[in-house]
Structures are given as C-alpha cells and as structure tokens.
Design brief:
The chain is α+β, with helices and mostly antiparallel strands and about 110 residues long. Helices cover about 20% and strands about 45% of the residues. It is built from 2 helices and 5 strands; from the N terminus they run αβββαββ. A 5-stranded mixed sheet has the order 1-2-3-4-5, with helices on both faces. Strand 1 and strand 2 form a beta hairpin.
C-alpha cells in the first residue's frame, strides 16, 4: 500500500499530473500547457485561529520562476500559485490559494 502526505494529495487535486522542480531558490511543482507554465508552491500549517490568505514572498517566487524559465526556455509565460493546507481541530482541512501570486511573460 502506498502512503501519501496531505500535501501530496492536495497537490494532486489542485494540479493533477504535476512534475516536481527544485533549484537553490526553492521547490515547487509545475505543468506546462501550450508554452504556459503553472508553478505551485505548497505548504502545510496548523490552524492558529487566523486562517487568512497564504503569506507570499514575491521576491522568492520571482527567483524560483526565473530559475525555472532559464531551465525551460520553451516556456513563454509563468503563473505561480501558492497553496496552503491548514490542519484544524478534529482533523479538518482547509485549503487556501493565492492564485497568480507571481506572473511573468517573455
């Protein structure tokens, strides 16, 4: 029997068939369709009562996106989403997403 983390399952629902990518600046998963790349950074945290939008470090997302663009010259545009899975009381899960937290075009 295979085991999956909450994060793996959340990513499979959010971005099916994604491929992992990593560089010195960070890690994410991605898909590319017609020269358009969707990158997704995901994280899990415990609920602390204030489940607001995910915190986004745009400069770090930009650095990861530029590494990705350098490694994938066929990509014409990048959209970077941030997915946050919040584990609440009684094993409830809440998903927050910052869609297009960073975008880029050649």
């Amino acid at each position: 029997m295979e085991q999956y983390s909450i994060l793996d399952l959340a990513l499979e629902v959010y971005i099916p068939g994604a491929t992992g990518y990593g560089c010195p600046e960070g890690r994410c998963v991605y898909t590319v369709t017609n020269g358009q790349a969707l990158l997704v950074e995901a994280k899990v945290k415990r609920s602390r009562g204030n489940d607001a939008e995910p915190k986004v470090n745009k400069k770090r997302l930009q650095r990861v996106a530029m590494c990705f663009a350098a490694d994938h010259p066929e990509v014409e545009a990048i959209s970077f989403d941030v997915l946050e899975v919040i584990v609440g009381s009684e094993a409830t899960l809440t998903f927050n997403a910052a869609k297009a937290a960073f975008t880029w075009e050649r």
